[in-house]
Amino acid sequence: MNITNSLSRIYSNKLTTSKVVYPELSYKLVGAAFKVFNKLGFGFEEKIYQQALECELKMLGLEFTREAYSRVKYEGKTVGRHFLDFIVERKIVLELKVGTGLYNNHVRQIFSYLNDSKMSLGILIMFTPKGVLVKRIVR
């Protein structure tokens, strides 16, 4: 399956919102993930895919922060912390996973990142034995 067919299928999927947030940037990010998978295949740790995707983001000339540290605050006190795989163009939280499928806990993780960062779009990329799965999550 080629990237163009895969991407058009993702964006026509009924699970995506009717108002697509940052469509061009999203398309670039998903395309970069497919390129990484097509070159590496399945079987690597998340960190390897993360480093390869970092190379792709640089080649695309995108501004990003990798492993962005974020504190969760409650009543002015830090009650937790997390590291976001990527924040791209100060607009999109990009989270990578390796496994067999997308699960509710992955989606909840992105929602918590979006709520904490006040960004409106998260993209979850799952590298699986059968290919790349993508889930757009809108806050």
Describe the structure.
This protein has four helices and five strands; from the N terminus they run αααβββαββ. It has one domain: 3-Layer(aba) Sandwich (Trna Endonuclease, Chain: A, domain 1). α2 crosses α3. It is of the alpha+beta class.
Quick structural overview:
The protein is α+β, with helices and mostly antiparallel strands and 139 residues long.
Give the helix/strand layout:
Blueprint: H1 3-12, H2 23-40, H3 46-59, E1 64-74, E2 77-88, E3 92-98, H4 104-117, E4 121-128, E5 131-138
Parallel strand pairs: 3-4
Antiparallel strand pairs: 1-2, 2-3, 4-5
CATH class: Alpha Beta
Residue runs with pLDDT of under 50 for 5 or more positions: 1-17
CATH fold-level name? Trna Endonuclease, Chain: A, domain 1
Number of strands: 5
Number of helices: 4
Distance between the termini: 31 Å
Query: Overall pLDDT, averaged?
Result: 85
User: What profile does the largest beta sheet have?
Assistant: 5 strands, mixed
Percent in strands: 25-35%
In helices, the fraction of residues equals 40-55%
Q: Which structural class matches the secondary elements?
A: alpha+beta
The ordered string of helix (H) and strand (E) elements is: HHHEEEHEE
Q: Which shape, going by the Cα principal axes?
A: globular
List keywords for this structure.
alpha+beta; 4 helices; about 140 residues; Trna Endonuclease, Chain: A, domain 1; disordered N terminus; five-stranded mixed sheet
